[in-house]
Design a protein that fits this description.
Shape: rod-shaped
Number of strands: 0
Oligomer: single chain
Structural class: mainly alpha
Amino acid sequence: MCGKPKTVEQDPEGDAQRAAEKATAEANTKKAMRRTSAGSMSVLGAQPDISKTKSTLGGG
């Protein structure tokens, strides 16, 4: 049972880089989802074009 000890290769800079890339990708995905949902809500909740409708305000 006395063999060579296992050497564990560690790459803290590489791990940090991969974690940062993963976090960036997740943040970009969340932003894109919010942007598309906000865009669709604003289109659905948009008011009609006021210049094409007549108003009874002003007595005319």
